[in-house]
Amino acid sequence: MKNEFLTPQEVAARIEAGAVMSIAGAPELLSTLPKGNWIGGSTVYFMTEAGGKVDRDHLFCTTFPEGSRATARHLATADLPTLAQGYQPGGVTLVIIPAFSEAHARFAEDGAGYGDVFDQPLLGWVSGVHLEEIGKVAPSVFDGAQGAKHEDGAVLLHVALPDGMQPSLDIVNIFKQGDDAGLVFSFPEAGFSARKAYVNGAEVDFSQYVTDKGIDTKLPLVANYAGALINVSFQSVDPEASSVAFYAPVFPGVEYRLAAPQEDYAKTFAAQVGSAGEGSYSCNCILNYVYGDMEGKLTAGFTGPVTFGEIAYVLLNQTLVKLDLAA
Amino acid sequence: MVLSETDLLRAINGTSDLAAASLATRIVLNRLRVQARTEPAKLSVLVADLRAFIAKNPAASAELATL
């Protein structure tokens, strides 16, 4: 795959030439693009070859190899459980969902239960806005086939890959479960917020617990999914309302531990992935960008949009998602 | 590689990591393990779900056989 940071005019030329593309950028730029084989999502944060940056003048484009065929479409929230019906044999599906939308919540809580959803790589991201625009501007997604902007539902790009090409989807999570392995959190209900939690089996007011213990909420809770470390990031802690909000749902029956502290996100990331990333489709989390002070810093060769949530079959937080294609 | 009922039950009831498995296999197995803990009466349904996943994702069979 080819990753490029292009002007809208350059992107329009690629689309009109028939390229299959995933595009990220400012919505006012995405709105100018012609119809074609693409989907898009709003963000102004990017990891580029020159490092992390905010940009409203360029679009980040990943172009699939020549010979790829694709169907772009918008799916209403109520129809999300059917998303795998569009899977192309042997292909991959990209999905972009607007942050804070009903689709965001429904996919996060129910997506792993959608029929056949694990039958091919499903990856993508949650679109966002500039952090100063939260609550003022709605994140959006774009269906290139129809040339339509949406603030709810999901846009999907079902890609059929050239013969013999094999996709590989994985995540890079620099966070590990903390050294205090005896401290286990669980939750009685699924959701993006929690009032009660169990700490080593004992029920607590979670907001009070987090406050009293001085827990660093820049670090996520980390669950071990049979060897895959899956984060849930803190959004806010409100002891007066007895509520803790998260950027992804917690689930009952899942054991969470606090992440170990990170001294330097960029260095830790580089140590984990080396020089990998060129030619990969990837996206990374706005929380890593902000907490890791990533402006001007590199994440090895990984470039792509900085997002309000990452998707690799399920919604993720503070994680880099990557797709590689091999002939 | 064909996994027996016993193999699938051991995978679902176990806690071991699938270090070299695909992300899909790890997430699916974790989901089934959580359901098995919260709804143990549905174990036979969960085994059928895992068998159906393997049927569509043949590589998962070898991945699960490492448990």
Overview of this structure, please?
- The complex is a heterodimer of chains A (327) and B (67).
- Chain A has 327 residues and is mostly beta strands.
- Chain A has two domains: 2-170 and 266-326, no CATH class; 185-258, no CATH class.
- Chain A is 14% helix and 40% strand.
- Chain A contains six helices and 27 strands.
- Chain A has helices at residues 8-16, 27-30, 102-110, 206-213, 265-273, 286-291, and strands at residues 2-6, 21-25, 38-42, 45-48, 51-54, 59-63, 69-75, 92-98, 122-127, 141-143, 148-150, 154-160, 166-172, 185-186, 191-194, 196-199, 202-205, 221-225, 228-232, 234-238, 243-250, 256-258, 281-285, 304-307, 310-312, 314-316, 320-326.
- In chain A, strand 16 (196-199) and strand 17 (202-205) form a beta hairpin.
- Chain A is globular, with a radius of gyration of 19 Å.
- The model of chain A has no long low-confidence stretch (mean pLDDT 95).
- By secondary structure, chain B is an all-alpha fold.
- Chain B has one domain.
- Chain B contains four helices and no strands.
- In chain B, helix 2 (23-38) packs antiparallel against helix 3 (43-56).
- The model of chain B has no long low-confidence stretch (mean pLDDT 93).
- The A-B interface holds A 112, 116, 118-119, 121, 169-171, 224-228, 230, 251-254, 312-314 and B 16-19, 21-31, 33-35, 37-38, 53, 56-57.
